Amino acid sequence: MRLIAFALYGVGAAAAGLLQAASTATASTTATQPWMLTSIAGVFLGMSMFRGGRPNLPGTVLGVIPLRLLENGLNFTDINDYLQSAITGLVIVIAVLPPAIARLRASR
What we know:
Helix content is 81%, strand content 0%. With 108 residues, the chain is mainly alpha-helical. It has 2 domains: 1-28; 32-107, no CATH class.
């Protein structure tokens, strides 16, 4: 199952790369770097907020939605990209801190 999952992930990543290169008419290895923080943070938020830290699809979807809304709002206000990343990181820390503290207290 893991091999199949990684193979499907690889095919999906290759297809996304081809579509990105086709839409921008150029190939760049760093073109998707701005989305990296949002995607990893969405998965992490979904894991920490739902189902006690275990990976799950509904949690990931619900973790990505608020981050994309935040990113959209920051883009509309024309805030610097570096400051946007810092604000997103701060929001992630604030969102993950209460469940982490609760788990820490429960383990004692």
